[in-house]
Amino acid sequence: MKQILKFAFPMILTHFGTHLMGFVDLYFVGRVSSVQTGAVGVGTSVWIWFLLFGIGLMAGLEYLAAMAYGEKDYKKQHEYLTQALVLSLILALSFTLILYVGTNFYSTFKIHPEVIGPATSYTRLVAWSLLPTYWFYIFRIYLTLIGKAYYPIVVLLIGNILNGFMDYFFIFGKVGTQIYGATGVAWATLISRIFMASALIICWLYWDRKGNRYFFKYPWRIYKARMQTVIQAGLPIALRMVFESGVFAVSVMLAARFSPRELAIHEIALNLISMVFLFPLGLSSAIAILMGQAFGQKKAAEALEFGRIGFSFGTKIGILIGLVFLIFAEPILSLFTKDLYVIQAGKKVVWLAAFHQLLDGIQIIGVGALRGLGNTRDPMIYHLIGNWFIGFPCSLFFSFSRLQGVEGLWIGLTIGTASVTLATYLKWKQQAATYSNLCSTD
Q1: How far, in Å, CA of 164 to CA of 336, rounded?
Q2: Contact indicator for 185, 43 with CB cutoff of 8 Å
Q3: Cα separation of 368 and 314, whole Å?
Q4: So what's the pLDDT on residue 402?
């Protein structure tokens, strides 16, 4: 447990710092209008697909680099790093172009007319933050592996302060006479992400050179075999993240068909579960890394124990967070809006989100445990089926056929997540039992 928390705590703080930016953005833009809040929600629901696909593709490094680190093969680590940087550059440039052009089709989704303009401006500008976000994520993984996990935390702290100042100046038009609203959020995001990526790269270069590791010792070039390995390990993770988050992105588009107030409720609830999701997400990453290192050191029994402990601890954390949501729903909503209708109508949605985050936390820990076993394919399949063939139809049914609006969307999302959680846990039990039997035989 101590080893898991040693790795998980910095990751949780890192994820928390990243998502805190979204909370601060929502806090400031919510003071402008529900239309601007909805515009940020719509834009985020689109660009998040591309952000998560790239991060997911790089997530395979957690297992690959951890294995190489456990084997003390620093040359292999360097090769994985260079391929990830090249791959992320290609992705970021391609996705930015797609997002810029794709905003022309916002009107086809029947989004509320008031929201389309600011949503378009927000999306086109925030798309440029994809590359610095990818690189921040890559170098965070490598700094964590060499025991310098506190550097991303410090950088994120400064980045959040910078983002808050930029939000204040841009959203409320302090740099001019015009209120920038959602566009101001995009400017703040872009500036802070560029700063964070640059700072982390400098930290990495300093410690790598000081430790005489490998960054300056081996040539920079494309290694076809390593590139293929990174893609093979990361693609199922990327698709899983897209399948999982994609259904939430589409749910925002569906909520945008209701009133701006309903859309604002949905956006606040999504940000709430995104924030608390960081705790099990940090545990999941820590479990994957520790299991990878343990397997690299030929300690299979120890690797399995990391997975078992993670499930137990993550479930307890999820129950505690759910109780907080249930008891303090109204005060939490009041943090993000002054609209009394949004506060009162949003309480039921927050209560649904309380149960959803418990299930979601358990499944993401299972994803980390399975990744530690080298299995990234099955979680991808579970998210495709659970979210899109079960959860999404249920959301459509309860929100439109039963006319329950945003509440109906969340009922469907929760049903889909429950199916994914069950499938992921059962798969972990099966594979863990198989590995245990192999360890006993050996």
Answers
A1: 15
A2: no
A3: 12
A4: 62
> Six-digit token pair at 172?
């409320």
Task: Name the 3-class secondary structure at 172.
Answer: coil
Contact 118, 36 (CB under 8 A): yes
The DSSP secondary-structure symbol of 218 reads: S
Pairwise CA distance, residues 283 & 249, whole Å: 24
At residue 231's C-alpha, the angle toward residues 241 and 427, to 5°, is: 50
Using CA atoms, how far residue 279 sits from 204, 245, 310, 320, in Å, is 25, 17, 11, 12
Place of tokens 């609006």: 405
Helix (H) or strand (E) holding 210: helix 182-210
**What is the structure's pLDDT at 432?**
84
Q: CA dist 196 to 116, 157, 178, 208, 269, Å?
A: 30, 10, 28, 18, 27
Q: What is the pLDDT of residues 6-39, one digit of tens each?
A: 778 877 887 777 777 877 887 788 777 777 777 8
Phi first, then psi: give them for residue 17, nearest 5 degrees. Answer: -60, -40
Token duo for residue 403: 């006319």
Q: What is the mean pLDDT of the segment spanning 117-128?
A: 88
Q: Which residue has the higher pLDDT, 132 or 340?
A: 132
Listed residue (47, 57, 288, 13) closest to 153, CA to CA: 13
- Classify each residue of 46-59 as buried b or exposed e, where b means 16 or more C-beta atoms within 10 Å of its C-beta: bbbbbbbbbbbbbb
Give the burial class of 338: count Cβ atoms within 10 A of its Cβ; 0-12 exposed, 13-18 middle, 19 or more buried: exposed
Domain extent listing, the chain: 2-441
Pick the more confident residue, 129 or 42: 129
Q: Which two tokens stand for residue 312?
A: 């137990």
Q: Which residues contact 113 (CB under 8 A, 6 or more apart)?
A: none
